[in-house]
Amino acid sequence: MYAQALNAKDAAPAIAEDPVKLAVFQARIDAEEKIEPNDWMPAQYRRTLIRQISQHAHSEVIGMQPEGNWVTRAPTLARKAQLLAKIQDEAGHGLYLYSAAETLGVSREELYDQLLSGRAKYSSIFNYPTLNYADMGAIGWLVDGAAIMNQIPLCRCSYGPYARAMILVCKEESFHQRQGYAIMLAMARGTAEQRAMAQDALDRFWWPSLMMFGPHDSNSVHSELSMKWKIKRFTNDGLRQKFIDATVPQAHYLGLTIPDPDLRFDEATGHWEHGVIDWDEFNRVLAGDGPCNRQRLKHRRDAEADGQWVREAAAAYAAKQRKAAA
Amino acid sequence: MTEAATPLWEVFVRPRNGLAHRHVGSLHAHDAQMALQAARDVYTRRGETQSIWIVPSTAIVASDPSEKDMMFEPTATKIYRHPTFYEVPDEVGHM
Questions:
Q1: What is the number of structural domains in chain B?
Q2: What is the pTM of this model?
């Protein structure tokens, strides 16, 4: 998902780095040493990481919205508590990640500004609407499942603070996927109407989930350096294949049909072969023209504006307390 | 954004009695009380905590990585500080 930023082209002009420092840096990376905030690093490594980590953080924060839509309408108190806990985790994940990005010398205020002004992106998946409660199951199972595929290799990212944040995130994320699958399972074992809801949710979220892994490797020319610097460990297609191979049998267990008529198991390779992904749709959503892009950003801007008086009051109170103590 | 930056705090958590507080991350808050409450929400959601410390990030004094050779190199050259430097005859047995 969450590694979509690594598919973007680095727009800044290339700077000639000191070849000796660059060689020492690459040797450390090759030796699987972690790079820490105060260590020397190429300017492009820093920029790539700021972009990647902050877009990951934005994804977590925006990712609360599709689920927040169903908190008050979850079918039972237990399901409501589970959904709240998952959303709270996502807020926490966003905060770990913003903190990791800040170690690279960018401020929290700057990062928020990039999101709210629309300059920064977040994962394309959150621009799809959640039409009914079955979508909570599909999102947990598929979207969080795809996120985990992306995030587990990021635990071994060469940048220490990012890797450490990802370890915390992955520990908590497994609950998200399992609670999603539990919802799907309950619906699959339920009434005909519930089974139809589960199938409908799978139909709508399957292709967008596959798109989360980003363009095919043949069209993803910008990730080479990220691989060399061990920010990224696996290719888009490699991760997508792992996700499909893991998920198809889970769908079959539910008695649901993957909405891909070309899907077939290749005996020779042991992998599931998928049909053609609609990259026009992916590019449209990424460029801002998905079903919910405007709504998601407006909601985030409104929340920021509504919270302004709280931040001002907290700052004023802290200043008063400091004055009284002086 | 015109607002001033909110102060940064470092968070240390003691997961169990018998273990030291360990650095888990950082957060922004206007005062110590809010930082402590936010630290609980952000870093202890799975009930694995006995106690939290928060420290203003500006209060931390750190060694300079560019001086690390001067700071830490002597430990590598003073090999006589390690027990393996000293030979004990096999006949003496474990020491």
A1: 1
A2: 0.90
